[in-house]
Specification:
Strand content of chain A: over 45%
Strand order of the largest sheet of chain A: 1-3-2
Oligomer: homododecamer
Distance between the termini of chain A: 24 Å
Shape of chain A: elongated
Largest sheet of chain A: 3 strands, antiparallel
Largest interface: A-B, 22 and 13 residues
Structural class of chain A: alpha+beta
């Protein structure tokens, strides 16, 4: 059978260092419970500010994985 | 550790009165099971029509919450 | 009470034949666990390529269903 | 026969009170001459200003109805 | 004289079989009353669902034709 | 009564000289049958090419006017 | 002389009651120092959430006014 | 070495039968001269009309391939 | 030191003749008080209509300049 | 055989006089080496500024032509 | 009183090292004169090139702050 | 002569370390064959995932260069 179904979700990672570190954290956390992640698309980048400095870099990612049931 | 991961979902609220009431309903329903919601972004507004009149106002919202596991 | 809350998710269907078949597969799979799906909006279309030929047609769909609890 | 054709038009409603009232007015006016309207999608919201205050709320809506002939 | 004026409208076609059939139906219906249609641009694709299966494929098209008077 | 309803349509003007001339032509043609036009928003600009040269400049405009009945 | 120059800025209004009240507040505050505001376009709507309920409705508006000098 | 560079181009396929056939034609033509194509993303769909009927379905695709030199 | 900060603002120019003249007017007015403008990006084009004719062409431009303090 | 394949490229034209002149220059330059150009779609307009005045008008155009081989 | 008004501006940061460094520089510069910045949203990323190498990374950010008067 | 013509292409860079490294690689590779590159605009960011970790960061860039002939 050649037809498969995937589900797409959005996750947000944060890091005080870089958007790449925020991406790694989000991907590794999601991978603990979701199988077969292959691409993470960046949907949005921003930064939180505290006391006039960047406190954290945030990245919103769209990832897809094999669909296996109820949400 | 300074890195956190969030999940983003979209919900739709409806109300026969206003988009604000639809938003309140959606946020309060989602808050029963999701912790630490802080911002609801409006993704789309529309209205259903019956017999030539507005029957309900609908708002699609994007909300994020702390990620804690399988989807 | 006239206010209802829905949840919106995105799913991806694939088919070696057409985007319509990919859509049917995704909708039928999602319907096994989600109640009261009524509209599937196309968010994105693409195709995978193998050996210089289209291997599968993929469709990303946005569908909504009645919200009934934790994610 | 299972195929139907619809036409989509855009209308703008105005109200000195709210975007919901503007929507109701636009939908009710359009319903006098168009049959079977079911959804009004919000395309744009704005407000006119006079003497430093909001004079009217305006909503641009996209509505569809059964296609029955020349434009 | 080298200047011409066109009008653009949006129509929606539906079909239980495919988006192509929905497009053909919409174009042929519009052509009965509008002259000189040349391009139909796809604005949106979706599908209606009944009983967990796709009931119809819908395509929203933008078409233009020679402008000849009141709307 | 402070609520009014408008209709929005799109028209396309063409000119062998400039997008401004194309806009003037479209606006003046539409004004023959539509009352109270006040703003024409540019939705799209393009040019047709013949024999390796620009043959005409085209502008797609969105204009609104007072709504007075069936489409 | 027929040419004028305007400046466009974005402001955000908040209200615990509605997006319309948030819009009125923002427009009236801006009007204290900016002359000749005429249209406020909605750029974004969202809501802040506290303790599982909507705490405030926020609207981001784009407004323009006569340009008179340094920023 | 873990860094690679790709080039992205857009191609348009046409078919009198379906957008899938148009996609297959475009992909197979491009594959004759470009190596290692893997995904074709749909950028735009439209149809040409002749004598009131759809004459051809057109699909604009974005494809990427290994970058190997001057354009 | 290799890091600089710029500010981006939007201005609107108007002209009874063309969008180019509207652009020149806006750029020259802004240059009186802002230093080192280098690019003006077109954000939006429209035209105002009076008595069924184009009264003025308007262009909304985004320009950036060296950031030197409070807004 | 009724299926053809086209390639789409983007070009940028510049002119000290107008966006139309910039468009003509770009189209005529591209036509020296590309056959059968028929439409140039405007993707972006901007202007370069020197000494507080517009130095050149730039237009980014998307054009398509018959696909005949390696890139 | 529960209603507040904010102003939104766009700033551009540059750095020869990374987009994160460019963001930090822009945020710290803006914080010298603007109070209570909390979020910086990325609007655009690009890079300048000199002699075939990246010379600087640039980030355009949207930030909001409490509105306190004339622009 | 004051009019020049440029061509715009899209390239994708990859790196196991950062989006900045991916950008540098893409720019340096493209500079080997294209003259006078000055700006690289980020069109899209994503990351590939292998075994639950980020394998590479990818950046899609739009770059322009002097147009000198057939594609």
């Amino acid at each position: 059978m050649d037809s498969k179904v995937y589900k797409v979700i959005e996750i947000v990672g944060t890091s005080s260092e870089s958007w790449e570190a925020a991406t790694r954290t989000a991907v590794e956390t999601a991978s603990k419970t979701l199988r077969d992640l292959r691409i993470a698309e960046v949907v949005k980048l921003d930064a939180t500010i505290e006391d006039g400095k960047v406190a954290s870099f945030r990245v919103r990612l769209s990832v897809s994985f094999k669909y296996e049931g109820p949400d």
